[in-house]
Write a structure and sequence with these properties.
Elements lengths: L4 E2 L16 E3 L6 E5 L16 H8 L5 E2 L7 E4 L4 E7 L6 E9 L14 E3 L5 E5 L5 E5 L13 E6 L9 E8 L14 E11 L12 E3 L8 E14 L5 E11 L5 E4 L5 E6 L3 E6 L6 H4 L5 H4 L5 E5 L3 E7 L12 E6 L3 E6 L2 E7 L4 E11 L2 E8 L18 E2 L3 H11 L34 E6 L4 E7 L5 E5 L8 E6 L2 E7 L20 E7 L2 H6 L4 E6 L5 E6 L3 E6 L2 E2 L6 E2 L6 E2 L1 E9 L8 E4 L3 E5 L3 E6 L3
Parallel strand pairs: 1-29, 2-40, 20-27
Antiparallel strand pairs: 3-43, 4-5, 5-6, 6-7, 8-9, 9-10, 10-11, 12-13, 13-15, 14-15, 15-16, 16-19, 17-18, 18-28, 20-21, 21-26, 22-23, 23-24, 25-26, 28-29, 30-31, 31-32, 32-33, 34-35, 35-36, 36-40, 37-40, 38-39, 41-42, 42-43
Length: about 625
Amino acid sequence: MENATLVELVPERNLLDPNFAGYKLSLDPIPLYISNSPSKVDHVLRSEEQYSLQHVKLFGLHNHLFYDPWSLNDVYFVDEKWMVQRNVLNRETGRLKGLTEVWEIPSNHVRRPGHYNPSASFPGLDLVLLSDGAGTLHLVKSGGRQAANDGRKWQVLLSEEVCGPEAPFVLVHSLVEDRELNDLGDALSGRKVHCLLLHVEEAKEVKGQRSIPSNERLGQNKSRATAFVTVIEWVTLHEGKDGSWSVGRIRKLCGSAIPDYATIEACGTGVVISSEHPFAFIEDTENPLLQDEEIKEVKNEDELMYSDVKWQQDAEEVRVTIALASGEENVKLGDVSVSVVDGRKVCIQVSEHTVLHGVTLHFLDHDLTTWEIKDNRLEVCFHKLEEGQMWSNLFAEGGPKCTEEVDPKLHEEINNRLSHLTSETMNPQVGSVPVFNSEELEECDEAPSNAATLCRFDGEAHIASHKACISSNQWLFNVQMGPDVTQALCLRHGPDGLLWQPMKSDSPRSKNESSNEPRNWSCSHVASFVSFGYVQASKQRKKFIACAPDASYVAVCEASQYVYIYRQPAQLAGDGQLRNRRTGEQINRVARQHLISLPSSQEILGVHASVSTLYLLLEDRLLAYLINE
């Protein structure tokens, strides 16, 4: 995150309602239309080898219902026969009439354990991207999807295993970059389609994985301890002069968590990611990363003057102690230079001699590094970027060999924390049990990790150019508010949910340009859901949260059976009046809440909220609730 410009999320006062009186339960009926599917939804479950937290989130929260932002009332899903099904609407009434098959995904692979669920994205008016969950990306020309009776068949333009042979992935986002034009308005090149593909891999199998913060998961059998990482591949597809398509540039970012939000900027120059753990670029096929040559293994034993290097750690810091060589008793602090580049590349120099140089196992906060000289020993204190994470080694594989010493304070703290589990007496006193129990915390008290950020990554400079800290703001949901705008995300601010729209940056930063030169990038507060932060926290079985593109309502879907609808405050119709029983104040606007009980107890596999209709996908049917006439 080095050199990132800090961005502050400032709410708009006129979008807040300090006089909000709460949601009123409405018993008004909501019309329901049901269409049965000829085949069940292609619902893929995790295999035994997909046991990490990333896999659980990737499979458990997968939305099987895909919407077309160019035609907001059209939704799609893939059935177990790999047929793409689309809802059929009465264009005059907006009511659901049934389902129709629009395309059959080529069966290049047989479904097997380890595959992902199918996914789809709609980058343009006539283009569709589909992933079969088995490793193949399909670019399809769909014709005029907005026509009332579109009888044209979908045509395959490209089918490629872009992430490797049968390497599954999920489509996260896509867009079409505008063609480059000359002064006469003629196209200089064909279209480009940018897409983000996400998959979870073992860290040891990822090229450049030393550049990323891994997340180790220890099972009951320690021999199965495995580090999994999340890989986001930013793939650019090119259209040739003859109309053919090919895979062009591929850029990769890695992190140790599934991001809550990931989108490509409208201009295709950067990506915006919100995650509880940091991401970083590790590869670019067209513009190689500078750090690729700099992170090569360093044979410190042959090059360095100092071999007695020891380190200690606690939950927040890493302390490195280096014994100075004989004859260096007069070394002063001014002779010492300590640098942390890209959050992990550490270089310590004494009197222009390199003392220690390597890539640390995890990320450091470069702004909080301090050092001192005591008793002819140099002590350098680094601050961990992810507080609470205990490191197994100081440096990544291939780095300098350093001896770890257990910090006496950490040893004492561990003993104190575990002391209540043992006792020298048969019946310890009740008062010895800790008063505070973290298990008693409710979901509404939870907050993201201290490293949670909303970051804009520059596609050319390979850095996080802008960063907004959201460690105190819980992520709630994402919503596409239009076909040609960046996806918006909703964050919890106290009791409310505020909707933020990332704006387009001025221009990309070249690699030769000073990284200190500021660029304009911000997030606009576009809508508010008053008290929604509280109400969603009480839904312990919630699976999906969906919001209408005009922010008129938001739906909280449980794993099955129940859906809660929260509408924005609206003027009371006719002469209806309400009064506050406590103050007697007349209320002219009221926010309504609806409780929907589904006609089936099947698991909810997908959801989409359009301006007029809430779509819910079950195992064998599509439900359409007419929310707004």
